[in-house]
Amino acid sequence: MAKHNIAVLAGDGIGPEVMAEAIRVLDTVANKFNHQFTYTHALAGGAAYDEYQDHLPQATIDICKNNDAILFGSVGGPVHLQHEAKWANCEAKSILALRKAFNFNINLRKMTIFPEIASLSPLKPELLKNGLDIVIFRELLGDVYFGEHTLSEKDGKRYAFDSGAYDEDQVKSIVQYAFNVAKTRGKKIVSVDKANVMAMSKLWRQVANEVAKEHPEIEYSDMLVDNCAMQIIKNPAQFDVIVTSNLFGDILSDELSVLSGSLGMMPSASFSNSGFALYEPAGGSAPDIAGKNIANPIAQILSAAMMLAYSFNLHQEASAINNAVKAAIVAGYRTGDLASGQAGEKIVGTKEFTDQVICNI
Ligand code: NAD
């Protein structure tokens, strides 16, 4: 029997709704596999601002520190209210602040396309016959995001300058993590860089090659980022695990996130060097559909499954959740965002979709 303590930060909009469903799923797994999960709820985003006039109060950080992992919902208000203090920079002040507070240097997003709902994808159906399951790792604390940025004048012309840097430890930390995850999946990894031009990428490629030598059981290759952006569209099934730097990961992970056809499908995780992690859906708080029992809970439920696998080493339990979600889709159950008009589809609400997942567990 495993015992784990989870900090639950549901946030705003659909966050609390889909979080409640993920917790029902976790409780089902705890019962079935005889584990004990204890949840401590804390405020983040606009919900925290209402109580503390702070989007990430110290009380929330302390609760996160005292738990084994963070399960995060989503934060933020309607886009037309972003000028209000409650919602201004809400995402940066809570989720980015949380990343900074815990030194999360590795981000992972998982993109799954089930063949049954492949018609929602902008990709051609023949590319998706067997579905897709791709994980992308993005480094979070280096690259041009943390360099110098100047926009000025030089020699009478407007002039711009950006700098970026990586050291070998930063690269090794994420590449090593990506290899460890590749071992639990399809044993195939592609490291993406721009080593034909950039010094940061040359170092990235050197270090990635060194780490690859320690893992001969994993099929490893390098790919230039421009080629990778094309290959994701032309032949996505070739990818299992992608690992890349901050800037390229920002762009490629957004490219991957539109392939499934709904933002409600993509779980993500952020890890620090110490192994501490936060799990969250990749989408936002969707205020336009909040409180209506129509949000897709899959990304939140799969984020909880990732937590079981990567933070608690409960791989069988994580697979039980992943398979249960897949079985609900195969049986025709869909939230509204996944409706494609095909015969046999049963359009259900957030709770009712989760009921099916729970039955399948
Ligand atoms: P969004 O991701 O919230 O919504 C975009 C569209 O996708 C909306 O039409 C929404 O209804 C739909 N959608 C998103 N998740 C869904 C789900 N689970 N089920 C069904 N449909 C879903 O992006 P937005 O509208 O640009 O932003 C809304 C708020 O979310 C903003 O305040 C933004 O800052 C915030 N945001 C937060 C995070 C985060 O918490 N990590 C990430 C992105 C955006």
TrEMBL record:
The top EC class, named as a word, is: oxidoreductase
Important for catalysis, annotated site positions: Y145, K194
Q: Which SMART domains match?
A: Iso_dh
- According to its record, what are the GO cellular component terms? cytosol
**What is the reaction catalyzed?**
(2R,3S)-3-isopropylmalate + NAD(+) = 4-methyl-2-oxopentanoate + CO2 + NADH
Question: Could you tell me what the cofactor note in this record states?
Answer: Binds 1 Mg(2+) or Mn(2+) ion per subunit.
- EC numbers, comma separated: 1.1.1.85
Annotated substrate binding lies at R99, R109, R138, D226
Task: List, separated by semicolons, the cofactors it needs.
Answer: Mg(2+); Mn(2+)
Looking at the record's lineage, which domain of life comes first?
Bacteria
Location comes to: Cytoplasm
User: Which Pfam family would be a valid example here?
Assistant: Iso_dh
Which annotated residues bind Mg(2+)?
D226, D250, D254
- Quick one: which residues bind NAD(+)? G284, S285, A286, P287, D288, I289, A290, G291, K292, N293, I294, A295, N296
Q: Which pathway does UniProt place it in?
A: Amino-acid biosynthesis; L-leucine biosynthesis; L-leucine from 3-methyl-2-oxobutanoate: step 3/4
**PROSITE patterns per UniProt:** IDH_IMDH
Going by the UniProt record, its keywords in alphabetical order are: Amino-acid biosynthesis, Branched-chain amino acid biosynthesis, Cytoplasm, Leucine biosynthesis, Magnesium, Manganese, Metal-binding, NAD, Oxidoreductase
One GO term under biological process is: L-leucine biosynthetic process
MF term (GO), any:
3-isopropylmalate dehydrogenase activity
Q: What are the Isopropylmalate dehydrogenase-like domain coordinates in residue numbering?
A: 5-357
- NCBIfam families registered for this protein in UniProt: leuB
> Family, per the entry?
Belongs to the isocitrate and isopropylmalate dehydrogenases family. LeuB type 1 subfamily.
Its annotated function is as follows:
Catalyzes the oxidation of 3-carboxy-2-hydroxy-4-methylpentanoate (3-isopropylmalate) to 3-carboxy-4-methyl-2-oxopentanoate. The product decarboxylates to 4-methyl-2 oxopentanoate.
* Quaternary structure and partners: Homodimer.
Question: What is this protein's record name?
Answer: 3-isopropylmalate dehydrogenase
Q: What organism is recorded for this protein?
A: Aquella oligotrophica
